[in-house]
Specification:
Layout lengths: L1 H17 L3 E9 L8 H23 L4 H14 L19 E7 L4 E8 L5 H11 L4 E3 H10 L13 H16 L19 E6 L5 E7 L20 E3 L4 E7 L1 H6 L2 H12 L3 H16 L3 E7 L4 E5 L3 E7 L5 E6 L1
Parallel strand pairs: 3-4
Antiparallel strand pairs: 1-5, 1-11, 2-3, 2-6, 5-6, 7-8, 8-9, 9-10, 11-12
Helix pairs in contact: 2-3, 3-4, 4-5, 8-9
Bound molecules: aspartic acid (ASP).
Length: about 325
């Protein structure tokens, strides 16, 4: 009897151990000048990535949910002024910070998102509240803000999001537009220099559930009211336990047109492709041919991690199923 009990315990321990947990994050894809990147800024990127990974991984390691891990990891990056999400978000052409975020639960395809919010301290928490506390998926502007505040989330004065660095960027962008003598209406939002910094996270928990989330200030110089791919389920974020969790960053209009996050999941589901192949084909072929710059982070149901980008840099980090941690900026 004792022997059977011991064998059973061993079996349970082994199967428990075989359940992988993993987490991957990004802090935006783009072109960042190696020379313009001061050692101090580089250190801040790595330190914040590390802190974000640890926050998420600690939850997974104690048996917590992928959703909780994604939210916790993204909150760290939203609160850090180095990234273009929450505090430190880029400015619209009108000099405002308008934030977008979304989250998705791969266990049942539940999702929530907010677009164009200006007073919610952590948009990712608002996205999660939309998913869990409303029958809807996407709220925008004042409706999203009222919903967040009704649900007890921390609200801030819009000034909270302002940083000097992003202010200087929008001033430089406005000057550039003037020099080009382009009418404002035709101006393209900027994908160049170090204007990147959208954040995202994908996690796999010990119950085999995948979750993904993305949070951003959008693109420098975007028009008032413009919403990018980050809060669009299927474009900037997607999660399905049967395929993968995906969070994107890049020129949002291309990610929306090509339904990038869902396309990767669909290729896995219908064509039985591996995550690595599906992500590579979408980012390096489909997007690139269309002229869309950016990248994706992803984890599949087995805990395989993919970080694919067609830009010179993507701030990123992961803790894989063997517990190995890494953070990187350049290719
Ligand atoms: N995808 C974001 C947007 O278009 C920007 C980014 O990822 O850098 O709003």
């Amino acid at each position: 009897m004792k022997a059977i009990a011991a064998a059973l315990l061993l079996f349970i321990a082994m199967t428990a151990q075989a359940k992988p947990i993993a987490i991957v994050i990004h802090g935006g894809a783009g072109r960042i000048d190696r020379d313009a990147l001061t050692p101090e800024r580089e250190r801040q990127y790595h330190a914040t990535l590390e802190q974000s990974l640890r926050a998420g991984h600690a939850i997974l390691a104690r048996g917590g949910s992928a959703l909780d891990a994604v939210e916790a990891a993204i909150v760290v990056m939203e609160d850090a002024p180095v990234f273009n999400a929450g505090k430190g978000a880029v400015f619209t052409a009108e000099g405002k910070n308008e934030l977008d975020a979304s989250i998705m639960d791969g266990s049942g395809l539940q999702a929530g998102a907010v677009g164009g919010v200006t007073t919610v301290k952590n948009p990712i928490r608002a996205a999660r509240a939309v998913m869990e506390k409303s029958p809807h998926v996407l709220f925008t502007n004042r409706g999203a803000e009222k919903f967040a505040s009704d649900n007890g989330l921390e609200m801030v004065d819009p000034k909270y999001f302002i940083t000097e660095r992003r202010w200087k960027q929008i001033q430089a962008w406005l000057k550039q537009q003037e020099a080009k003598d382009k009418p404002r209406a035709a101006a393209e939002p900027d994908r160049h220099a170090d204007y990147f910094g959208t954040v995202g996270c994908v996690a796999l928990d010990a119950n085999g559930n995948l979750a993904a989330g993305t949070s951003t200030g959008g693109m420098t110089g975007k028009r008032f009211g413009r919403i990018g791919d980050s809060p669009i389920i299927g474009a900037g974020t997607y999660a399905d336990n049967r395929t993968a969790g995906i969070s994107c960053t890049g020129h949002g209009e291309y990610f929306i047109r090509h339904a990038v996050a869902h396309d990767i999941s669909a290729r896995m589901a219908y064509k039985k492709e591996s995550l690595a192949k599906a992500a590579r084909d979408v980012v390096q072929t489909v997007l690139k041919q269309a002229g869309g710059s950016g990248g994706v982070i992803s984890i599949d149901a087995l805990g395989n991690i993919v970080m694919e980008f067609n830009t010179p840099a993507m701030t990123r980090g992961s803790i894989d199923r063997d517990g190995k941690t890494k953070t990187a900026i350049f290719k």
